[in-house]
């Protein structure tokens, strides 16, 4: 049995309550306290019987993540370092825009994939995050910003599909009306292209959004940029994305970091156009954020504009991702672990 309530999915909480002989509505009450109201202790859960609270304390304790550092950008973006009960820490970013609040959350502490342009990749892997630890990040942002989180992106630290079950459990709790009640379409998960995960995700009933970090449609340079993906061909990746679309009917976003001289010449442009053909997609071009100790530079503005124009000319929807919070190193790929 798990020792912490954070480890449970909604379903798991239902099973636990059933096992403990509790009435059916108990799981709903517990989930509401944990993730809708976001209280810090079982003591505060006023409609739960004292005996249940005691048992929960003993057998499935609640240990909320805490904020150990916070930085506020000129543009309103806030970056937090949250620490979990074992001392491991991960970063999370809250990005307000008009009536929206987007939270970019971490799914692992560190990442094992080692992409050469990514600060998280350079830090290595520490551990998977539990569903409740992912929800904690969102609740922290919501409380601190004083507004409801409307959009979620799993683009912080970690590769979500290497922590599939916990990530899906977190997405479901975030989507649930008893949890954070965020629309499924407004919850995006980003993968570097783990095929087993894409296949599994295709069968999930919710209309969650999937983004795939493509970064290059030329095998050779993708292998350089994402060394852990060398065993995987672009052909297989495309095949599985197409199968995903057929099964789910959902559009895919391709993320494409643009690095000067590495993946931004004409050969790469035409390969990208070719890769997009036959899939319903949206391309997100992201001039790379510079990271400490790296010589990689973002593509020139004229190159980025050329990519945008040529993709659009061919009927491929493309946008430039504006970097938010870059003055606090809160931009994508700049999220680092902090071990204290
Ligand atoms: N592991 C997942 C999700 C986390 S990374 C994935 O790779 O998709 C989320 C996004 O941040 C990815 O698209 C990644 O390419 C981007 N990113 C990483 N490093 C970056 C950098 N230095 N500048 C801009 N974006 C970066
Ligand atoms: Fe991991 Fe994504 Fe960074 Fe690659 S880009 S190292 S998969 S977090």
Termini, distance in Å?
29 Å
Looking at the structure, what is the overall shape?
A: globular
**Rg (CA only):** 21 Å
The parts where pLDDT drops under 50 for at least 5 residues are none
Cofactors, ions and other ligands in the entry = S-adenosyl-L-homocysteine, iron/sulfur cluster
SSE series:
HHHEEEEEHEHEHEHEHHEHEHE
Strand content: 15-25%
Largest sheet, strands/sense/barrel? 10 strands, mixed
Mean pLDDT: 94
What class, by secondary structure content? alpha/beta
List the total number of helices.
Answer: 11
Describe the protein in words.
- The chain has helices at 10-19, 25-37, 50-59, 119-123, 131-145, 164-175, 195-202, 219-225, 234-248, 266-276, 301-313, and strands at residues 66-72, 78-83, 89-97, 100-104, 108-110, 125-128, 151-154, 187-191, 209-213, 252-258, 281-287, 317-320.
- The protein is of the alpha/beta class.
- The mean pLDDT is 94.
- S-adenosyl-L-homocysteine binds at residues 111, 117-118, 155, 159, 190-192, 213, 255, 257, 286, 288-289, 291, 332-333.
- Iron/sulfur cluster (SF4) binds next to helix 4.
């Amino acid at each position: 049995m798990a020792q912490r309530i954070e480890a449970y999915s909604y379903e798991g909480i239902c099973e636990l309550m059933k096992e403990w002989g509790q009435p059916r509505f108990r799981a709903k009450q517990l989930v509401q306290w944990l993730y809708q109201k976001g209280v810090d202790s079982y003591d505060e859960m006023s409609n739960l019987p004292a005996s249940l609270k005691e048992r929960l304390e003993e057998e499935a304790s609640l240990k909320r993540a805490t904020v150990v550092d916070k930085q506020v950008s000129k543009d309103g973006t806030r970056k937090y370092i949250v620490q979990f009960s074992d001392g491991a820490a991960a970063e999370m970013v809250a990005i307000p825009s008009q009536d929206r609040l987007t939270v970019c959350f971490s799914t692992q502490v560190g990442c094992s994939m080692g992409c050469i342009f990514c600060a998280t990749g350079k830090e290595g892997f520490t551990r998977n995050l539990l569903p409740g630890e992912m929800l904690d990040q969102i609740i922290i942002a919501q409380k601190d910003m004083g507004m409801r989180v409307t959009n979620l992106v799993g683009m912080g630290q970690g590769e979500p599909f290497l922590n599939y079950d916990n990530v899906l459990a977190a997405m479901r709790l975030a989507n649930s009306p008893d949890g954070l009640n965020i629309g499924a379409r407004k919850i995006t998960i980003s993968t570097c292209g783990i095929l087993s995960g894409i296949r599994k995700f295709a069968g999930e009933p919710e209309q969650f959004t999937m983004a795939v970090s493509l970064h290059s449609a030329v095998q050779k340079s993708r292998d350089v940029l994402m060394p852990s993906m060398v065993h995987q061909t672009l052909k297989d990746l495309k095949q599985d994305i197409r199968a995903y679309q057929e099964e789910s009917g959902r559009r895919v976003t391709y993320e494409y970091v643009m690095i000067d001289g590495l993946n931004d010449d004409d050969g790469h442009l035409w390969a990208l156009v070719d890769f997009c053909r036959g899939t319903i997609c949206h391309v997100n071009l992201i001039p790379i954020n510079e990271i400490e100790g790296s010589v990689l530079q973002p593509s020139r503005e004229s190159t980025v504009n050329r990519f945008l124009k040529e993709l659009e000319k061919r009927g491929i929807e493309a946008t430039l991702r504006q970097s938010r919070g870059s003055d606090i190193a809160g931009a994508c790929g700049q999220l680092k672990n902090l071990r204290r």
